[in-house]
Amino acid sequence: MRPPARTGSDIPLFSGFRGGFFLQTVPVRPRWFVPGDIDGFFGLFVDNLLQLMVIAVLGQAVCGFPPELITGRILPGAAISILVGNLYYAWQARQLARRTGRDDVTALPYGINTPSVIAFLLLIMGPVYQETQDPALAWRAGMFACCLSGIMETVGAFAGDWLRRHTPRAALLSSLAGVAITFIAMGFVFQLFASPVVALLPMMLILTSYASGVKLPLRLPAGLVAVAVGTALAWGLRAAGAPVFVPPSQPYEFACHWPIPAVAELAAFFQSPIGWKFIAVIVPMALFNVIGALQNLESAEAAGDRFETRPSLLANGLGSLCAAALGSAFPTTIYIGHPGWKAMGARAGYSILNGAVITVLCLAGGVTLVLRVVPLEAMLGILLWIGLIITAQAYQESPRRHALAVAIGLVPALASWGLFLVETAVRAAGSSLAAAADRFGTDLYIHGMAALSQGFLLTSMILAAVLALVIDRRFHHAAAWALAGAVLSALGLIHAYELTASGVQNKFGLLAAPGFAAAYALTAICLWVWHWMQPAAAAPARGPEA
């Protein structure tokens, strides 16, 4: 069990009656910045920078966005939404620290998440551009999707608390761990080992220093030292003639790109049918962000910081609305990784630093400049650490008896990541998954992989919740979760898909996945039968770690 949070009365300045004075307790005044905020900043900054890089690269390659649209409209709008959110969550952390009298509260990390970037680029804006060859129209479709996502996230804030109270911790943390070990850790570990001369030493410095807790000389932040070592190695070897680091060819030109409101363009697009036909992508991704935010709040609580659900989710949704109103096509959300930043010693200052630096970079067009100086591989070890911390936390902070539930919760994310690899390979070979699917035969059950990947966060929660509740012999509650799986399958929010030339797309509609809906419904019936067969069966009397 984690120790209880310290309160103001636990941290006395003076106490009792001494020397003729009544001595009172005072609350802790948390500092704005601590040394650990530097490490936390580097980790969160790298994560946000990676998303901005993906937007810049894929935006041009997939959606035909000209550089002036990316640097002049999209990135400035994204920067302001990131800044506003980071400032709010830093303030929220300080409020919690003051209220509880603690000095170790870590702000929730915040930014643009990878799944939303990939989904919006490949499944919304990319198809619009391919059909119309109009990058401006594709951009407006992205803003429309971002706005709808923000509206759904804002509405979801009012149901989030109830969902959080009635969901086993294993269900919330295991699905998050699945994303951590696949799209975050494994998603970048191959890139690390593809450039061992530049990347391996920084990665090992990060892992060994953070895991051991050893302080570096002069109390230098491990993340800063690792990035500096990787950068020095890259430029030193480049000077010696070794082609281990090739800076981007695009030159950097300083300019101020102030955000320009896009409300009129956004409002006009609501009357167009183009955006509405992608509702099958927008709805699951909005749910993805709401559920992901809930999971990250649970992850933060497991690490010792309990933030209120409703205001956290409201800020999450309003941030996406702010992004869309200023020209960004990408929703913002509470990030995965709070326990990792907390373990680094970060508090509230790292969030402020991240928002400020990201904003300056985007407004000055400086993303290109950073990539011309610092090799990306030197920074990726921080993301590997975050992925490992989140995965370990799912097992450590869930009751021990729920280890099986955590394990099954990892499977849907593994399927989604595996499908992403398969699609990438097929596309690189000049084909599409729709054309190649039948050729896999029994060597790879690609249709099962696609079904499991659709709505994988929701599927992970359902499978883990059912197993955790069954382990506790709460069969009627488990049946309710199985029934939820039937409803979500029937509506197409999980398991339903279509193979198209542009990839796997969600199939949204009534009885979209009838086979899965029937299977979940029959499972619910079986669980209710077990409940009535054992009316006296209750959760065994076990400790929290049993």
Rounded to the nearest angstrom, the radius of gyration is 24 Å
The CA-CA distance between the termini, in Å, is: 11 Å
**Element-by-element helix/strand order:** EEHHEHHHHHHHHHEHHHHHHHHHEEH
**Strand tally:** 6
Helix count from the secondary structure assignment: 21
How would you characterize this protein structure?
The protein is mainly alpha-helical and 546 residues long. It has two domains: 36-398, no CATH class; 400-540, no CATH class. Helix content is 66%, strand content 3%. It contains 21 helices and six strands. The longest helix is centred in the first third of the chain and has 34 residues, at 67-100. The protein is globular and about 70 Å long.
Key words describing this protein structure:
single chain, about 550 residues, mainly alpha, 2 domains, about 65% helix
Furnish the topology, listing elements before pairings.
Layout lengths: L16 E2 L2 E2 L13 H28 L3 H34 L9 E3 L1 H19 L2 H31 L3 H26 L1 H17 L9 H18 L23 H7 L3 H4 L2 H24 L6 H17 L6 E3 L3 H7 L4 H15 L3 H7 L6 H17 L6 H26 L4 H4 L9 H8 L2 H16 L3 H17 L5 E4 L2 E4 L7 H20 L13
Antiparallel strand pairs: 1-2, 3-4, 5-6
Helix pairs in contact: 1-2, 1-3, 1-12, 1-13, 1-15, 2-11, 2-13, 3-4, 3-10, 4-8, 4-10, 4-11, 5-10, 5-15, 5-16, 5-19, 6-7, 6-15, 10-11, 12-15, 16-18, 16-19, 19-20, 20-21
Short description:
Helix content is 66%, strand content 3%.
